[in-house]
Here is the input.
Amino acid sequence: MATHDPDLRKELDATLQTRKELGPEYESELVESFLEKLAGTVDLRVRRQLAEQQVQVARGARPPRPAGGGGSDFWQRFGVAALSLVLAVPLSAVAAVNAGLPGLLVCWAGIVGVNAVHSASLRNLLHRRTERRDGEWD
Here is the structure.
């Protein structure tokens, strides 16, 4: 992991300790509560990064691009896939506990759907970049 959020780490430790004290019958509520806090943390980080990028654009600076050019696309896809797998475990637990096998299937269909849409949009973006580059040389 690139960075560790100490508050989120404390929250996870507290959730796990509470689960030990209360027992497995409260597991789905605890997991759901932790996922809400995790989603809030992710939202905050995304908003912060978008605000930083908007400030850079407003100042006339281009957003930073890695030296390799196409390497960022790989890391973007890798990041979405890794995040999907990390979130899939607790989401699957919540879905299976609350809705059984149908809930688990819907959960995984959503995970696969998010990854497919992201991959298709990234592929479309790369295709448009290639067309634009080819057109510049004509």
